[in-house]
Amino acid sequence: MPMAITSLLDIHLSPDAPADAEERVTSILSQTRARPGFVSADVVRDVTDPRHLVVVEVWESLEADDAYRAWRATPEGASELGELAGGRITLTRCEPTPI
């Protein structure tokens, strides 16, 4: 049975990102939520830097997350997130551990 994967997308919105950047992130996430294998997504904001967001996504499996990332790399799945962040995005994928 596949194991759920938590993906952390660490985003630093660019200082020159438009005023509606957060609404644009919300729109991008609506596409994410429609993908196969999607479980949940939450956005949290850094209390000391309001332009620093972390998207916490949960996927049914690593394969579902891989398929989503591959889709995002296509013209159909491309988003403006990289532009909004000025390229300052880091993806970390985590799996449950019995620690």
From TrEMBL:
InterPro entries: ABM_dom, Dimeric_a/b-barrel
Native species: Microlunatus spumicola
Gene3D superfamilies linked to this entry: 3.30.70.100
One Pfam assignment: ABM
Protein's recorded name: ABM domain-containing protein
Highest taxon of source: Bacteria
Domain ABM: 11-76
